[in-house]
Protein: SET domain-containing protein
Amino acid sequence: METRMTDFFCASPATPAPGPDVHERPPEPIDDTMAVEYTEQLLTPENSRSETSSNNENASAEEKPAVRRRSTRVTRASLRGAVDLNPDPESLQPGLPTPVSENEPTVSGETLVAAVADRGKQTRSSHLRHSIAVMEAAAWSQATLAGEDDNNNSNNHGDTDEPAVAPGTPVSNSSQELHQGEGSSSLPRRTLRKRVERVLTQDGDNHRAGRSTTTPSKAETPQSPPRRSSRISLLDKASALVDRAASVLGKRSRDATDQGSNAARRTSLRPRNVAPVKNEPTASEAPAPKKRRVSESDLPSKAKSPEQSPEEEAPTVKTVTWKPKLWLSHGLYTGQEHTDARPSHKRDRITKVQGSRTPQRTLLPLPMFAGDRLLKSGRDFTLPFDVFSPLPVGQPKPNEWRKTNKNVFVGDASSIWRANKPLELSKCMCVEETGCDENCQNRYMFFECDDGNCALGPNCGNRSFEELKHRAKAGGKYNVGVEVIKTEDRGYGVRSNRTFEPNQIIVEYTGEIITQSECEKRMRTIYKNNECYYLMYFDQNMIIDATRGSIARFVNHSCDPNCRMEKWTVAGKPRMALFAGDRGIMTGEELTYDYNFDPYSQKNVQQCRCGSVSCRGVLGPRPREKERAREAREARAEAERQKKRERANSRRRAAKQAAGTKRKMGKVLKGSASRVNKNRPVASKSRSIKAGVQKAVSKARSSGSTQAASRARNSKAQEKASSTKSSPKKAPARAPSTKSPVKKSETKAKTNVRLPKVPPTKTKVRAPARSRKPQAAKANETTKKSKSQTETKAKAQAEAKAETKTSKLSRPSAETKAKILAAAKGKPAKRTPKKAMNTKSNKSPTKPAPKARVATPKQAKASKSVKSPAKKATPSSSTKTTKAKAKA
Ligand SMILES: C[S@@+](CC[C@H](N)C(=O)[O-])C[C@H]1O[C@@H](n2cnc3c(N)ncnc32)[C@H](O)[C@@H]1O
Structure:
């Protein structure tokens, strides 16, 4: 018992004086060392005080905390031990000195440690109460310290020689009271002591009651401070954990090597007042580490097992867990994933590139010239419009906004809502090469791909909402990508703080899903006086009311928007989201979409202030441009069809006209370069024929009139002229030949169509041929004109003949007569029967005609000389007639 007391005492230099019997006991040699050391520290009040305070300058750096801790805790323990562990109730009688000497041994370190094990279940509340009590004592002690310290010290030193007592220590004061009893007679002290005792007693009773089953006798197993025990166990556990961690981390070997030197070092640092204990503690021996860590009182036990100390004193390896350094993943390309793809590349392409990107080489740096080459070769890049565009200072924030990022069914909506029909599900058949591009069936149907309806997995480019989810998870305003701004004249709005690629998802439109009746009700009541509405038609006659909703509710309307609001089916459920338009979005742009606003009533119609060129003026429904365009397209198609029909009809007509001259027609068409051109001549042919015929007719008429005027002056030259014409059939063909090649061809065509088949002489006669081919009206006209020309010619000939009758030299031979007659027969018999008859009957000699054909110079002279009377008229008329014929 005494040994224990000594241990306890020695181990706790700052602990209050144990009792007078301690001093009566002869000090042991080893304890002397300790006593000397601690005496040096504790003799003066300053030292005592400084030890209780947090800064003990005298103590070494390593000793300081230990001493301080020891002081407080052990003192508490002693207090507790003094109060709780007193087995003899008589010893606590008032007025008698407290039999500390009897009690103290039970509060030795060993016992405490044993008690620690028993008291592992002590509650925190009791610790707290202890602490409070001790602190109260401390407060009191400090207050009274100034007045009493000197006396106490002098008394102590002078009377009782208690060097280990630290008078200034609050605990020591209370201890002193406990032990000395009458020595401290002041009322406050007693009161405090009683309070502390009461608290401790209560605590002890509680604890005793708790462990009554395990402790047969109070005296044998005194209760040690619960707090201490819990600390011990905690520290023990911690050290065990650290040991384990060290072994896990593979540092055991290093520790093993360090332990040798560390042990030596620690031994040197260890308090030198370690007293080797001669008498081993009794049965209540606790694990050494606990003692060692708790207080000086444990030192003996530590000393008695020196071979264990290196292991027990395993250094607490601090596993420093560095915070992982965060690298900025985006610089200039805020919000954009890095890619080597050209800016012009589509997003799907980029996704593919990212998917197949090889990991960056990390072993060796790039060669020296790599940077130079990169600089020289250059690389296209897209610089955001505004890399850093903070919001203007003093931007107000929408206070009334209640945010929700998920759709919430309200009222009857959830019960009315029906699950999607399986029929509405879609499955895509895309392959990796295409990667669910714009041809993906799911995309086309506004179905988001997932593992259930698409087999491409990460290579799929149709998982916008999934992407949005990841962005939201990553957090940060550049991932979210949008922020609320205050616009000048449209309330709040939303702008981007990063870039968005064309058709990239930006933000989901969420809110309360309500029925239509609920919506109307809200419109009538809650939103009656509102200027802004956050209602949007959703699905199944439901409406999203984003008055409580996501940030997308602040997106304003524009008649020329840069975004689209789209409804997609994601995992069988409809969801609305804002997507970037075809132009993409630059940093700092205000996001807008076309509301296609239905104002419900006329009084809700609002003026649009989007400021776009194509502004519709009001927030109203979008004009049905598509429908209009479709109607226009249909009208155009109808007109085209009509034209085609007409063209086909005309072609059919022309084909019918050219029925007899198919082969020649084919020849004409063959000359055209293309199919279109092949069709053209058919149409132009009729026109050209018509024009050619008209010209010929007009000329023939004019020539006819001229002939009539100069009829009287016709001479033999006329006969020659008439005889020189080869045949009437060539006349119409020759005339165009003098003109442009196009007209020639036209004329040819005309000739081909009509004339070649009709013998020129008979044409006139065969005028009834018109009845044979009544459809060929134009050809008939031509025939008529040629007939008229022939008539004119025949008339001229007849006149010439008549004249030649009178002339002596121009008597035709029989052959000439026959020819003339033959020519005359070409005239329409009906029209010129008389003339023909006359010509025949007269049998006028028209021999010079064949001569004229030859037209030798002698003949010309002769004719000139003979035709003296008709000198003027004859050449001109004949020439004109010839020309007219030729033209015709
Ligand atoms: C969904 S809210 C948009 C956010 C709203 N600006 C705010 O401050 O909360 C729709 C309302 O914004 C206003 N608004 C949106 N676009 C507008 C525009 N182009 N011209 C005028 N007002 C507009 C209208 O009052 C409309 O009812």
Remarks:
- The chain has a mean pLDDT of 61.
- The longest strand covers residues 563-570.
- The two ends are 160 Å apart (CA to CA).
- The chain has four domains: 2-227, 233-312, 402-418+463-622, 687-887.
